[in-house]
Amino acid sequence: IEPLMWLTETLEKLPTWPNSRIDELLPFVKDQNPQDNEG
User: Fold this and answer.
1) Could you tell me the pLDDT band of residue 4, with boundaries at 50, 70 and 90?
2) What is the rounded CA–CA span in Å between residue 26 and residue 36?
3) Full-prediction pTM beyond 0.70?
4) CB 32 within 8 Å of CB 23
5) What angle do CA 35, 29, 16 make, to 5 degrees?
6) Distances (CA, A) of 15 to 2, 9, 10
7) Is the pLDDT score of 37 beyond 60?
8) CB pairs under 8 A, 24+ apart, for 6-13?
9) pLDDT per residue over 11-35, tens digit each?
10) pLDDT in the model for residue 35
11) Pair 22, 29: CB distance under 8 Å
């Protein structure tokens, strides 16, 4: 990922981006259902 390109695009989208979808602007995706590392 190119940091400057990502930041520029994100800042352009931010004013009109819905708060409920803000996580879609992150450069990585958090695991919604993490599995336990036990066993």
Assistant:
1) very high
2) 24
3) no
4) no
5) 140
6) 21, 11, 9
7) no
8) none
9) 999 999 999 999 999 888 666 655 6
10) 62
11) no
- Compute the C-alpha angle 36/37/39, nearest 5°: 105
Residue with tokens 């919604």: 32
Tokens of 36: 């336990």
The DSSP 8-state label assigned to residue 29 in this structure reads -
Residue carrying the six token digits 């995706």: 29
Which one-letter amino acid corresponds to residue 20? S
Q: Which amino acid is at 13?
A: K
Tokens 């994100």: give the residue: 10
